[in-house]
Task: inverse folding
């Protein structure tokens, strides 16, 4: 096992009817800015419940954070935070709202010149504090509710930032708040969580048995409950399992002490930035092809995955790997998520534009080995057509 630090201060408040506990979670004299997306929280009554939970506190609202949140939109919220001297941010939504809120929390306190520097790890000495954040999760997928990262769209690219200051103080995970999700977003959440686990698992073995077994537990749970929770949105237990898997899949636990990859995400971000394909769908496109192309470097873990996740016990190693990749693709497709670029109208000649974007964004030596060069990325994208 590799050396590691593990730190996660976020309090999780899980279960039905927990929104009324907001009153105990935020200090009484806080000036709260509630942040949300395009309106689902209004339509399905979540915002009203949040307001009730906040009692008589001074409340401000900022709606309209779009999927794959844009820097320009978030900077408008930063103005409100500064002008109104907001001292608590409450994100109510999915990954885009949660990530956007984390960025706002840092940008509002940023002491450098351009807040966009936060996205590029520049001028880190100008990041000294952040407005405290709470979260009410309406879409189980990203794990943003219990981690220190966010992803923001800036200048036609998607950029990640990480900072301990943006760990939420608390996150309310009430699975019933996710019942209103359209099937395609539930499927997105399953695939995103699945791939988060894979990015921290499908590398090379370092005898991290706890990490491997925990990752495998999450993957198996997702396979067990995936279809059920897409087809039966109000099946509480199936949805509760998805919600918890999504949080545990990316809160630092399973990636501590093991090598991690993240190249499926890096390549996927270019597809979202260029063609506005949902985040999870880009992962379903890239992952099967990436495993096929990197099968030598990932050999041992791919075989372990085939045997332990899909119970494939016969055949050569290569046959096991082929079948495991096929089963993974079938799992995604069975949830209604297409796995080829062409399914989204992206043609072969557009691959070169994606490779150029990877180059422009410095994504030229990806993966746990750094061996995914631009040529390898091109091969992966060609295999995903
Ligand atoms: O905007 P509204 O009207 O709220 O509608 C949203 C949005 O259109 C809708 N929705 C959310 N909750 C709902 C609901 N509709 C009905 N009922 C509900 N309960 O769902 C749509 C998608 O929302 P979004 O927040 O964009 O989805 P998701 O949670 O998948 O987040 C994706 C973003 O997270 C980033 C992605 O890159 C992308 O920008 N990620 C963040 C990570 C992190 N912070 O650690 C890691 C991930 O890998 C990922 O990159
Ligand atoms: Zn993801």
Result:
């Amino acid at each position: 096992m590799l050396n590691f630090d593990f730190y996660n201060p976020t309090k999780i408040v899980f279960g039905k009817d927990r929104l009324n506990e907001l009153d105990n979670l935020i200090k009484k004299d806080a000036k709260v800015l509630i942040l949300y997306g395009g309106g689902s929280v209004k339509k399905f009554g979540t915002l009203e419940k949040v307001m009730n939970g906040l009692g008589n506190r001074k409340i401000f609202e900022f709606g309209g954070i779009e999927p794959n949140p844009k820097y320009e939109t978030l900077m408008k919220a930063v103005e409100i935070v500064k002008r109104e001297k907001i001292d608590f941010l409450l994100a109510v939504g999915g990954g885009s709202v949660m990530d956007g809120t984390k960025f706002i929390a840092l940008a509002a306190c940023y002491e450098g010149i351009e807040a966009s520097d936060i996205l590029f790890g520049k001028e880190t000495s100008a990041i000294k504090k952040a407005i405290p954040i709470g979260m009410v999760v309406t879409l189980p997928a990203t794990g943003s509710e219990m981690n220190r990262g966010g992803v923001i769209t800036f200048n036609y690219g998607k950029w990640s930032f990480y900072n301990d200051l943006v760990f939420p103080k608390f996150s309310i995970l009430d699975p019933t708040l996710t019942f209103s999700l359209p099937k395609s977003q539930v499927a997105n959440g399953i695939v995103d969580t699945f791939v988060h686990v894979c990015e921290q698992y499908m590398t090379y073995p370092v005898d991290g048995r706890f990490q491997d077994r925990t990752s495998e537990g999450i993957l198996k749970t997702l396979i067990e409950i995936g279809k059920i929770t897409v087809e039966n949105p109000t099946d509480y237990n199936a949805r509760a399992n998805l919600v918890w898997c999504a949080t545990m899949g990316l809160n630092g636990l399973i990636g501590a002490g093991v090598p991690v990859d993240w190249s499926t995400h890096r390549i996927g971000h270019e597809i979202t930035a260029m063609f506005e394909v949902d985040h999870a769908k880009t992962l379903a496109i890239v992952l099967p092809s990436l495993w096929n192309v990197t099968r030598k470097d990932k050999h041992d873990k791919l075989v372990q995955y085939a045997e332990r996740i899909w119970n494939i016990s016969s055949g050569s190693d290569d046959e096991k790997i082929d079948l495991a990749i096929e089963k993974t693709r079938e799992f995604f497709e069975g949830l209604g998520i297409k796995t080829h670029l062409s399914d989204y109208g992206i043609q072969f000649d557009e691959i070169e534009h994606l490779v150029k974007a990877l180059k422009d964004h410095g994504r030229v030596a990806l993966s746990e080995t750094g061996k995914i060069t631009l040529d390898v990325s091109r091969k992966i994208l060609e295999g995903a057509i």
Remarks:
- Residues 37-41, 44, 67-68, 93-97, 99, 138-139, 141-144, 147, 149-151, 177-178, 180-181, 185, 188, 192, 250, 265, 279 surround 5,6-dihydroxy-NADP (ligand 1) (CB under 6 Å).
- The chain has 14 helices and eight strands.
- The radius of gyration is 20 Å.
